[in-house]
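Changelog-adjacent note: as of this version, every example in the card shows the full chain rather than a window. The one below runs 188 residues end to end.
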Amino acid sequence: MKYGIKSVTMDDVARELGMSKKTLYQYFCDKAEMVKLVFESEIDSKCKEFDEISQKGMNALEELIAVFTKMNEMVREYNPATEYDLKKYYPDVFRNYARRKLENMYEWILANLKKGKSEGFYRDDMDEEVIAKIQVIRFEASYDNAYYNFNQFHDKHFFNELFKYHIRGIASERGLNFFNEQVLKQNN
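Full-length structure tokens:
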């Protein structure tokens, strides 16, 4: 994830793991298989992290704030070279990774919207399925955008504004009050 895929060789991986390349090839038939398994593991790991947040017994807005914080960390760790290499050299792995990422993101957002609506933190008149799709599209479009550069997207202020924009679009009056209280607590 740090250096991209193309520039990292099987020799590099073996050296980093403290094993011979011959031993590494006992686990993977080639680099393509390793890349596929690494990205499947990456998706599973991220899903598990978001599931753990959902299982903490928080209300929908608290969950959303926790997920936002986690996503902010993930965005700062994102390396566009890795995605570029994946698209160019492992297109099947990229398609599967992108599909699973979007499906999981959509399902989590949809569940959170339904939960928030039932708790009274989100607007009653909201169509959760439409809003979930819009949020996924917005997030994905943020990565590949000619209007602003990659560094601007990583700016904490930009990410906070994007989050506040989303909250103000989905929150009920009760939800806005709760959100404002949380923001005040974080700022103090």
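Structural remarks: The CA atoms of residues 36 and 179 lie 40 Å apart.
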